[in-house]
Design brief:
By secondary structure, the chain is of the alpha+beta class. The protein has 2 domains: 9-118, Yope Regulator, Chain: A (2-Layer Sandwich); 136-261, Yope Regulator, Chain: A. It has 9 helices and 11 strands. α1 packs antiparallel against α4 (100-111) and α7 (173-189) crosses α9.
Length: 305
């Protein structure tokens, strides 16, 4: 099984290369979910600026994204982001730790810029759950993150759990079938004793879950599905566990569609292989056509088949 990484590989490799050999740089690239990045040098070759644009930035800021970025990057966060981008980091390569382990940790931290920004609603949900559990409250506010066209993540805390709902669009009929099979495997796998502590997974097609059914503008068509994760306190009992949970659950939508495409490609390759094998059998089954030559009295040749 192939797992997608939370960090951006281009950022990681580019920073590692520029630490060895600083040079002029101006690279624009796009990550999952249409997140745009711009990595460029400033006045000096050892000064880099990394800018990010994400369509749900305003929603993330409302849930505390800037607090998380300031906590993770401190003075690296630029007071004024680059034009057409939401946030920028200014990195001085000469100030990066020389110790190999510390340097790799710093590079990985920068490569996790998108992950850290998207962690805001999850961290707020975990915090709200603890407050509700202590105070005996009922439910926290429903947080919405519209991170893709026609798709969103919904997070809501309760006294005993945090509910995370993904809405995802299946463009093709085969995608819906594959998606249903994959998601059923999530439900069946949880019955095994070794992974019964995994989050509960629920899948509904067309009809939104009760937690978000009151929201206006939700689509009610066959090409949309809703996946619900129920996170209990054991899934975010401490900082390291909570961080791992956030990293994994953020990538669920991309993971699902990525494996749907991989499965379709594998099936197509197997079908092409099977057709090629059938073609060989048919070719071997063809009989040789006998050809005989006959000559007339004048010496002309007649060919009969």
């Amino acid at each position: 099984m192939i797992l997608l990484e939370s960090h951006n590989y281009i950022i990681q490799t580019t920073l590692a290369d520029k630490l060895v050999k600083p040079s002029t740089l101006d690279v624009k690239f796009v990550d999952f979910d249409g997140v745009r990045f711009h990595l460029s040098t400033q006045e000096r070759k050892t000064s880099l600026r990394l800018s990010m644009h994400i369509r749900c930035w305003d929603e993330l800021v409302n849930y505390g994204a800037m607090d998380i970025l300031n906590r993770e990057y401190g003075a690296l966060v630029a007071a004024q982001p680059e034009e057409e981008y939401n946030v920028s980091l200014v990195i001085d390569l000469e100030q990066i730790p020389t110790d190999a382990e510390a340097r790799d940790a710093f590079i990985m931290s920068v490569a996790l810029l998108k992950r850290n920004a998207l962690a805001a609603p999850f961290e707020l949900g975990f915090k709200t759950q603890k407050e509700l559990e202590a105070s005996g409250g009922t439910q926290g506010d429903l947080m919405q993150v519209h991170y893709r066209d026609e798709e969103a993540i919904y997070v809501q805390a309760s006294p005993d759990r945090v509910t995370v709902i993904f809405s995802t669009v299946f463009r093709e009929e085969t995608d819906r079938i594959f998606g249903k099979v994959f998601l059923q495997e999530f439900v069946d796998a949880r019955r095994q004793p070794s992974i019964q502590n995994a989050p509960q997974v629920l899948y509904t097609n067309r009809d939104p879950p009760l937690e978000i059914r009151h929201l206006p503008g939700l689509r009610n068509t066959e090409d949309i599905g809703y996946v619900t994760f129920v996170l209990f306190p054991r899934h975010f009992v401490n900082a390291s566990t909570a961080s791992a949970t956030i990293s994994h659950i953020q990538l669920f939508r991309d993971y699902l569609h990525y494996h749907i495409k991989c499965s379709k490609a594998y099936m197509h390759s197997r079908m092409r292989h099977r057709v090629a094998e059938f073609q060989k059998v048919l070719n071997r089954a063809k009989t040789e056509v006998a050809t005989t030559e006959r000559k007339t009295a004048s010496g002309r040749t007649l060919v009969s088949r």
